[in-house]
User: Which sequence fits this backbone?
DNA sequence: AGATTGGGTGAACATACGTTCACTCAAATG
DNA sequence: CATTTGAGTGAACGTATGTTCACCCAATCT
């Protein structure tokens, strides 16, 4: 981008998400091992990529140099951690997959009252979504856009997630009228709907409780319709 | 990408999707007006962008120069047609929106037999999808990834599509038990499911009739479940 | 017929990019 | 304590990018 742009343009708070050397000896005594430091830098690179995508761009449009810039590291360092941008992308998929599955644990932890069950689940989902915006943004964004490789990896995580959800519903004894294949199909529908809702929620301007309630209501109703359909299902 | 790569690498069939000057006087007599030629070049630029995305990349990762290269035009020409890459993106959204809505006309044209209705619709959809791969690929890919601006435009087209579908179902007298808001919610669910299926189908390797049938079957069953739910719905 | 318009051109620019290399110097190893 | 290891560095490379400009010349207008 040549356009003259006289000002250096970088207010130092968009860049340098992490201090450049992360306080080599943070507090008098804290000897931090070599492996720990490596892991930390790796995490900074992953965070930097997510952060940039948070500014509203697809993974495919990130450059190695800007990722390292935000991570507070020189470009060459990148290769100590990843072979490729694709490689980093796959690491992000894995990280996000873990986050996704913790959502199920979270939902299990919150016992589900048979009445208001859907509303409760949706509330758990909304809270969890807000606590892990960037991971959901990444998954929702790359699950049908961008590179075929990353998309395939995301879809694999998603299938994993669906399987786990299927098992949970089976174990809870809900929907006893459906055989496993059908239950899986229904869970796939739920997850598609959930990902769609995630995109909706993430796009909402921060302070629009009205729209927020509207989307939540729509999401609840869509889930209700799915469960009604599942109950009425005959093989 | 500096890596040496001794061969020039461009077999002239990946690039130059369109001949550079498009036969100034194609056949002795065919005087082509100025406006027509402009429109044609514009179309070449749009096609070039879609073509590149067809190679498995997000819109956000395309560069102005490669688009013009594939369109068979010099970079500077781009600005005679679009102010911006974003501008071109929005034009693509509009084009794709038109394509989407023609799907509904297509489905209306094919009278829907009350029995096997879902299977028929899905078949129409699959045919139409194959005939307009790139537009669907674009819409499905950008509806939750990439730039916020383009995503918003895609979602607006999608809402338009949902509204039209709602009206169609209302007019056909299907689902008379649902009020308009609920019918709209259900159609939203259908469209989300359809977009998801589109991504699945587009990712299928060309010659895998087994997987193809599997995905088709899954899609049909998901739709069936939705309609079952809609029938059981009580306000 | 002559003047005007405007889509397409080709060269030039400053900047950003991915990748390589020889290097440093603290932590790990013995 | 002496040696080895390897994450992070800084400079350099060749190439690609977005944008501008003066120019060309056929279709259009008068």
Assistant:
């Amino acid at each position: 981008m040549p356009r003259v742009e006289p000002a250096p343009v970088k207010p130092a708070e968009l860049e340098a998400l992490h201090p450049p050397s992360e306080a080599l000896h943070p507090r008098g005594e804290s000897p931090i091992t070599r492996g720990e430091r490596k892991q930390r830098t790796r995490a900074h690179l992953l965070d930097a990529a997510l952060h940039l995508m948070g500014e509203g761009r697809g993974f495919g449009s990130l450059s190695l140099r800007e990722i390292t810039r935000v991570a507070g590291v020189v470009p060459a360092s990148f290769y100590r951690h990843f072979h490729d941008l694709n490689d980093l992308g796959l690491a992000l998929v894995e990280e996000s997959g873990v986050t996704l599955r913790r959502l199920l644990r979270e939902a299990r932890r919150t016992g589900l009252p048979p009445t208001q069950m859907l509303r409760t689940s949706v509330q758990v989902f909304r809270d969890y979504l807000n606590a892990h915006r960037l991971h959901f943004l990444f998954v929702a964004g790359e699950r049908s856009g961008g590179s075929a490789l990353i998309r395939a990896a995301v879809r694999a995580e998603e299938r994993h997630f669906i399987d786990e959800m299927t098992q949970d519903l089976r174990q809870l004894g809900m929907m006893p009228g459906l055989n496993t294949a059908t239950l899986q199909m229904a869970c796939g529908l739920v997850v598609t709907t959930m990902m769609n809702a995630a995109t909706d929620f993430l796009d909402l301007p921060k302070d629009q409780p009205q729209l927020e309630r509207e989307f939540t209501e729509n999401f609840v109703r869509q889930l209700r319709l799915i469960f009604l359909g599942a109950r009425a299902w005959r093989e």
Q: What stands out?
A: Chain B is about 65% helix and 0% strand.
